């Protein structure tokens, strides 16, 4: 992805991921994360982290956005891009569980843009770079 395309995606998705991060339910970690998922038809589906006292039941922003999109009728592997934002770190990185879900529900060449409080630290991955050797059926 060239810098112009990356910049255009960030301009479109970052404000929405910031909005999603403001909706988080994170009373335990106090670590808000928002995600904006671009669908094949140009819609943007938001997700935020939702925690639970039983940490294993917590859901990350990335998975929340992907699960919401699928529940709204978007087909798996039809997404165009995902942007993840966390305001409390210079740049965020998806956890292992999110990497596995992303690798199953998004195409290998889709961009995953990760950013945080330092705009110069934005990180861009392709899905297939996030989890080499991902479990697949």
From TrEMBL:
Residues 8-137 form the CMP/dCMP-type deaminase domain. It comes from the Bacteria. This enzyme scavenges exogenous and endogenous cytidine and 2'-deoxycytidine for UMP synthesis. Its EC number is 3.5.4.5. This is Cytidine deaminase. It comes from Pseudomonas tohonis. Substrate binds at residues 49-55. Belongs to the cytidine and deoxycytidylate deaminase family. GO terms for cellular component: cytosol. It is an enzyme of class 3 (hydrolase). It catalyses: cytidine + H2O + H(+) = uridine + NH4(+); 2'-deoxycytidine + H2O + H(+) = 2'-deoxyuridine + NH4(+). Pfam families: dCMP_cyt_deam_1. Zn(2+) binds at residues 60, 95, 98.
């Amino acid at each position: 992805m060239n810098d112009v395309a990356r910049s255009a995606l960030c301009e479109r998705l970052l404000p929405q991921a910031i909005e999603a991060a403001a909706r988080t339910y994170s009373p335990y970690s106090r670590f808000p994360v928002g995600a904006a998922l671009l669908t094949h038809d140009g819609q943007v589906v938001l997700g935020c982290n939702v925690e639970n006292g039983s940490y294993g039941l917590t859901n990350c922003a990335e998975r929340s956005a992907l699960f919401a999109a699928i529940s709204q009728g978007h087909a798996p592997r039809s997404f165009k891009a995902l942007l993840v934002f966390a305001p409390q770190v210079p740049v965020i990185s998806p956890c292992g569980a999110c990497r596995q879900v992303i690798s199953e529900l998004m195409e290998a060449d889709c961009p995953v843009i990760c950013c945080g409080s330092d705009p110069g630290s934005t990180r861009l991955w392709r899905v297939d770079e996030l989890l080499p050797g991902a479990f697949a059926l």
